[in-house]
Amino acid sequence: MMKEKFLEIYRENITRPGSEEFLKWLESTDFFEAPASTRFHLSRPGGLVEHSIHVYYRLRDQYVLNRQDKEADAFIELSEKEEETIAICGLLHDICKADFYSVEMRNRKNEQGKWEQYPFYVVNDQLPYGHGEKSVYIISSFMKLAREEAMAIRWHMGFSDTEFKGGGFSVGNAFEKFPLAVLTHIADLQATYLDEAESDG
Ligand SMILES: [Fe+2]
Ligand SMILES: [Fe+2]
């Protein structure tokens, strides 16, 4: 069901040259069955596509709010170009996690104290190119990204990005120049910590 939703949003909004070839490639990966993480948010089959949809809706809301604040306008209508940009950044920011995880069987004691096997996700990156930068690299081999789209996807992890942790300043500089990067990071945080918070834990 999440896959259908993803495809619906994709086809409705992303139409630039290469978009169909990209989708074909995506179908050849484990994207639609992959988890969003090994242990944290949406660590189950279909988690990654669900997360991507959450980020899309959150980003669209943030984008509209930002324009409303700037233009003091109650009603904002987005252009087709804006809708396409939002769909690309929301749906595809974590495309780097396609063909990224594999499942291992591990042992644990169940409630009755008996050993049982359970599936456990491990990272098994088939294309170790980083995170946001890897998403940009993959998308760019199919479709041309606008500068602000590339920046938004590259820096969607914000100050959790390994470049920043290593002492770099690029993320702050990118945020200053490209508001879309700030909005995409906010949307990623909202999806992860608000939409996907463990309610049964
Ligand atoms: Fe990410
Ligand atoms: Fe994400």
Overall description:
It is a single chain. The protein is mainly alpha-helical and 201 residues long. It has one domain: Hypothetical protein af1432. It is built from nine helices and two strands, in the order H-H-H-H-E-E-H-H-H-H-H. It has a two-stranded antiparallel ribbon with strand order 1-2. A hairpin with a 5-residue loop joins strand 1 (101-109) and strand 2. The longest helix has 25 residues, at 47-71. The radius of gyration is 18 Å and the shape is globular. It starts with a helix and ends in a 6-residue tail after the last helix. The structure holds fe (ii) ion (FE2) (2 copies). One fe (ii) ion (FE2) binds next to loops.
Give the key terms.
201 residues; mainly alpha; Hypothetical protein af1432; two-stranded antiparallel sheet; 9 helices; binds fe (ii) ion
| SS field, number of helical segments | 9
Give a list of the ligands: fe (ii) ion
Helix percent band: 40-55%
Strand order of the largest sheet: 1-2
How does the helix and strand content classify structurally?
mainly alpha
Poorly predicted ranges: none
CATH fold field value:
Hypothetical protein af1432
Using only C-alpha atoms, the radius of gyration works out to: 18 Å
CATH class: Mainly Alpha
Chain-wise SSE layout:
Layout: H1 2-13, H2 19-27, H3 47-71, H4 80-92, E1 101-109, E2 115-123, H5 132-140, H6 147-154, H7 162-165, H8 170-177, H9 179-195
Antiparallel strand pairs: 1-2
Helix pairs in contact: 1-3, 1-4, 3-4, 3-9, 4-6, 6-9, 8-9
